[in-house]
Amino acid sequence: MKMNKRYYLFVFVAGIALNFTSCKVPEVVQKSENINLPDQYGQEENDSTTVSLAPWKEYFKDPYLQDLITEALDNNQELSMTLQEIEIARSEVKAKKGEYLPSVGLKAGAGVDKKARYTSLGASEATTDIRPGEEMPEPLQDYLFGAYATWEVDIWKKLRNSKKAAVSRYLASVEGKNFVVTNLVAEIASSYYELLALDNELKIVNQNIKIQTNALKVVKLQKEAAKVTELAVKKFEAELLNSKSLQYNVKQEITVAENKINFLLGRYPQPIQRDSGVFLNVLPESLQKGIPSDLLQNRPDIRQAEMELAASKLDVKVAKARFYPSLGISANIGYQAFNPKYLLDTPESLMYSIGGDILAPLINRNEIKATYIAANAKQIQAVYKYEQTVLNAYIEVANQLSKIDNLSKSYELKSQQVDALSKSISISGVLFKSARADYMEVLMTQRDALETKFELIETKMQQLSAMVQVYRVLGGGWE
């Protein structure tokens, strides 16, 4: 009868605690993500597939570039640090999983206790016999070994949701690594094409130096023949010196570009193997862009934001569950005696216990409420970040597709301009020799031709860089 009364009292107290805590949970409106991507990019028709599904070795066919990317994926420090972030997230999952499983351990101990004789407890022990004729020893020793277990019953799924949130963050860290890989592949490819462009600029400068050297020889001969003045000679000489100075500027840019690639490869400066002669002959790949909704599956940063959003939603549930009572169960079993020779006597030395408790927040509810509101705010923040990431991805693709189209048309016109100015150099030289053109016309023609050739190479580099960036923004390079 007494047991029944205790049971009903326990249930009554638990019910009051549950009712008190559950009715005070604050209501906070959560924002749901709303992704409505356009059906296509601009006015262009959609493709059935996307180039982002192609492995980077198929997309970048230059064997030197392939070797550089392979080495970077093995040695890049930023990528290595990201891999450690994955290990940290994986350990967090294991830790959260352990929180909702029972905790079992072993314990052993020994001690000694001496009670004052002239106390109620000391006098009681002094008059107590263990067995007939065997007094309680003094001081009293104590030996113990056994097992114990504790377990919080996850009634409100607080611990399981916490573990699921850790899993989502682990998956987000994996996507973060994929995003680093995508950017690393793209950055190496862009830097490689920039290096090829600088090689070609240096080649043009060297060719221009030869042309100007020959022109200087001609103008010196004409000065000797009294056809031109010393002013013309100095003008040609100054233009030649300017080109030689430009030559060293380009060489410095080449060194910087090489070391940038070396840094991405995680190594100290050394020459970069490359074939610069193929630069102007490299044609942009035919791009299959797919449909905008493909970005949700192919872009690692979008998938990362999606996983972070899922984790933040679970965090809200975990924070909400803290308002409710928690049920804990604990148990002990083992042997305990004052003398080792009695330690295994059963049932005299056997001891065990089992108990449960319900804990409900009562006083410090402001802290729990603040945590809940903060978790909800972070969830809304994660929604905005997810929407922003998707919007940014779409705009990046649209910009790069437009850039490729415009650069293609610009390159055609620049090529025609270079052809025209290249012919004008030889024409101006012939006219100058026959005194039908002055030296300034020759110098300006050479300068215009040099600048236009540089612009052609710059346009080609931008064209190839846009090809790289389209592959990146569509989500290619990480698989």
UniProtKB/TrEMBL annotation:
SUPFAM superfamilies: Outer membrane efflux proteins (OEP). Gene3D superfamilies: Outer membrane efflux proteins (OEP). Keywords: Coiled coil, Lipoprotein, Membrane, Palmitate, Transmembrane, Transmembrane beta strand. The keyword Lipid biosynthesis does not apply. Residues 69-96 form a coiled coil. Its main location: membrane. It holds the Pfam family OEP. One of its GO terms (molecular function) is efflux transmembrane transporter activity. InterPro entries: MdtP/NodT-like, OMP_efflux. One of its GO terms (cellular component) is plasma membrane. It is a lipid-anchor. This is RND transporter. It comes from Neptunitalea chrysea.
